[in-house]
Amino acid sequence: MRTKNTILFSFISTFFLIFLISIWKILSTLQGLSINSFNIEILFIFGFLISLAHLGIGGRVKSFYKSVIFSFIFVICDGYLIQKLPIWYNVGVFLIIYFFTNKISKYSFTSLKEEHSTQVILFDFLTLFGILFFSFVILFPFYMMLVTSFKTQIALLVNPLDFSINFGQDIKDLFKSYFVIFKSYKFGKYIVTSTIVSVGTVIITLLFAIPAAYAVARLNFFGKTFLSTSILIIYMFPAIVLVIPLYTIFSQLGLRNSIEGLLIVYTATTLPVAIYMLQGYFKSIPKELEEAAILDKLSWFGIITKIIIPLSIPAISSVALYVFMIAWNEFLFSLMFLDNPNSFTLSRAIQYLSGDAETPRQYLMAGSVVVTLPVLFIFVYFEKYLVSGLTAGSVKG
Amino acid sequence: MNDTLANTEKKTAYILTLPAVLLVFSIILFPIFANVWISFKEVELKDIRIPEPRAKKIVKSISDEPSKIKILYKLRNSSLIQEIRDVSFEDNFPKNFEIENLDSRCSYEKYHLKCEFGNWPPKYRENFQVIFATNNESKIDKKNLKSIKPKLDGKSDNILLNTNFTLKNFKKVLFENEFVDLILTTFYYTFFGTVGSIVFGILTAQMVNQKFYGRTFMRSVLLFPYVAPVVALAYTWELLLDPNSGTLNSLLLNYQIIETPINLLGQKYIEISILGFDFKLRLALTTVIMFEIWRYFPLAFLFILARLQAIPKELYEAADVDGASPFQKFFNITLPQITAVISILFMIRFIWNFNKFEDVFLLTGGASGTRTLPINVYQQGFAISDIGMGSAVSIVIVVLLLMFMFFYFKLLGKRVDEN
Fold it and tell me: Complex ipTM, two decimals?
């Protein structure tokens, strides 16, 4: 059992190490280093030896010294003797090995003898592996989006793998793509349009949704259950089946290429989920408050503005943020309804930009950064509200 | 007393819900029915513009008679296919303008020119000219004359409102549109995208449910693909996967993993041999499915994580006492607890992936074997500009969707009965 677990442990930890180093190598390659192979065989031997040595030494040496020693040996062999790479790369490798040895420091021969230790090892390393894998897979495209926007076309053609940013250059050169898209492609205007459309959608949606949600949550009327179930069913209907009729009607009414047209469609498509989310929250507000208000002869308008709204600020903000996000990210309707560059939203503008094969890719990426940053910023800043919005509004694709 | 109270309550409720209901019904429900109507018609994109009588006003002075002025109207029917009936024309002129040669179709009273042009056939054009005499040449203000716009009016048929129906669109959809291939592609895309995103959702939720440093940060990061705008993400992926200078191909070439670049988004099939068997994998479709999984697993993650955190700790503690292994705990405690969430997720994601348009459109535009039903709606309606066909494909989507929903609610009903 012990031998089997020792070998298994060494194997798994080695694979984890190889994965760590490989990601580091990929990132270094993208900084312009010429690394032409992963040297997996050497990494494998080193990793295996480190894992075995770690178990063998056990608790006889303090784990800090142990980590430092392993890291040094690895860096000297791999970085200087075999590949001859710059200092910063080796510092990175040093830190990775240090991190790795720290991670495996909780395993020892005694812990490998415990019950289910094989599965515990597998589970632990799968978690570690998963964290790394998913962070890399998710953040990598965002990282590439950002660094590409700072490069020039020529630099990318000379070495398509060199994404290092030269911070020494003039600010104007560094942010050249951003200056270009704002000056020549009128991105400032598109930002304003997108903001007006998104904020407008939020305001109108709330104006319509709060009274309706209040009625569904509190009042008794004929057709109430029908209304609340049909809200959800309607919401499952996709935008793509609405596109053709709306396109024909909007063309005939002259609503295409107008902000008003977009506002109407966006409001209608976000209303069902807004009502659904709000009525759930309104139901949780104690009824006694309203009963007192009715005795004070407050009208329904008074009840909503003086009692319901102040009490449900968290729910209203999460609806507002969620609706804002949908409106800001929306693409299908802006593609269909806008074909005059003067009324483009950001998403549509980027799509238009990409339609021209001559457009350099760094402009496209600069545009993408401009459209992505506000959403990510809002998301990180108001995560608590947005997550509850996402879970409740999950019917949205 | 009670009765009136109930009545006012009802009235209030209707007032409160009416705006929202009207808007949603007119923008969402009405178009769905309009689709049925349009799908039985032969309509093209160019037909939906309502024909208009138009006039371009040109003001010209007459060289040897400075007190006179010539006004030329270039009249035309804006439609190339439809007739306009009973065209009427009106224009105003400044005082002291006297008309010289009055056309028989027109009348001139109180400096107001009124004409009845009768019916205009499609593509109709006419240069209509009037000459005015004034008593004072210095008073002719050409700019002002031009700024007064003539009013034209006429009747025409709206092609959408007539009652000519045909079954042609549906015949074309079913028999001339590679229908089986279309359905199969849509099904692959939907099914594998859904299953993939749920599997990744389970893995990540299980992962984030453990304790580790930077867990909240990890949770935010996992949601990035879901909240970022699809346009930005799709173009970033396109650049990463580009066969000529894309980062992925450059990296693979650099590490000598491949010898020639792979066109991940532009190649329909790729030959793979596993254990001596040759497979033909639909490459572009697979890439698009990967993107879909990448973009939508966060939703599954969020749902499953919420459910995992609600599982009582006692269950795991009891399992520990019994000496259960981590995998036993996962398969015997965690999985049974999340099956309900997974089945709901499966249905929601299935329906939404089935309707997904933007992702495929932005990545491949429906080329190289990635043509799904929603893409086909766009292609028929706007690329080939056959609105009727596009509507007919939409109807196919709606019918399939209703079938899914029917099964979904039946299953849901069964589940409720069991509890």
Answer: 0.89
B282 and B362 share one domain = yes
| Contact at CB, A29 and B251, closer than 8 angstroms | yes
- Is the Cβ pair A252, B34 closer than 8 Å? no
Inspect the interface and report whether the beta carbons of A244 and B387 lie closer than 8 Å: yes
Nearest residue of B to residue A369 by CA position? B232
B348 in a structural domain: yes
- Using an 8 Å Cβ cutoff, are B122 and B77 in contact? yes
Taking alpha carbons only, the member of A206, A223, A188, A184 closest to residue A327 is A206
Q: Is residue B281 part of a domain?
A: yes
Q: Do A209 and B20 touch (CB under 8 A)?
A: yes
In a domain, B211, yes or no: yes
Record: contact B394-A325, CB cut-off 8 A? no
Q: Which of B20, B245, B251 sits opposite A208 (nearest CB)?
A: B20
Q: Domain check: are B110 and B214 in the same one?
A: no
Nearest CA in chain A to B360: A332
Mutation choice for B interface testing from A29, A41, A241 by most B CBs within 10 A: A241
**Domain with B320 in it: what CATH number?**
1.10.3720.10
Co-location of B184 and B89 in the same domain: no
Residues A210-228: tens digit of each pLDDT: 999 888 888 887 878 888 7
pLDDT in tens, B379-390: 888 888 888 888
* Residue bearing tokens 């589970």: A123
- B138 & B187 share domain: no
Contact B17 A215 (CB under 8 A): yes
Which of A196-205, B12-21, B106-115, B180-189 is predicted with the least confidence, judged by mean pLDDT? Answer: B106-115
Tokens 């600010």 sit on residue: A171
> What separation in angstroms does the CA of A165 have from each of A31, A147, A156, A361, B257?
8, 7, 12, 16, 27
What separation in angstroms does the CA of A89 have from each of A72, A75, A86, A95, A301? 13, 10, 6, 10, 65
For residue B239, give both structure tokens.
């650049």
- Minimal CA separation from A310 to chain B, in Å: 19
Measure CB to CB from residue B390 to each of A142, A161, A244 and give the nearest one. A244
SS3 A162: strand
What is the three-class DSSP state of B306?
helix
Query: Is residue B132 located within the same domain as residue B230?
Result: no
Q: Which residues of chain B make contact with A325, given a CB cutoff of 8 A?
A: 227
- Is residue B90 domain-shared with residue B137, that is, in the same domain? yes
Residues B116 and B193 in one domain: no
Do residue B204 and residue B147 come from a single domain?
Answer: no
CATH code of the domain containing B151: 2.60.40.290
The answer to whether the Cβ–Cβ distance between B239 and A365 falls below 8 Å is yes
- What is the number of domains present in chain B? 2
Contact by Cβ (8 Å): B57, B150: yes
Q: How distant is the Cα of B22 from the closest Cα of chain A, in angstroms?
A: 9
B133: nearest Cα among B84, B62, B189: B62
Under the banding of pLDDT at 50, 70 and 90, the label for residue A186 is: confident
Range of the structural domain that residue B74 is part of? 51-155
Tell me if B17 is assigned to some domain: no
Rounded to whole angstroms, the Cα distance separating A311 from A118 reads 53
Distances (CA, A) of B268 to B177, B283, B286, B297, B368: 18, 6, 10, 25, 5
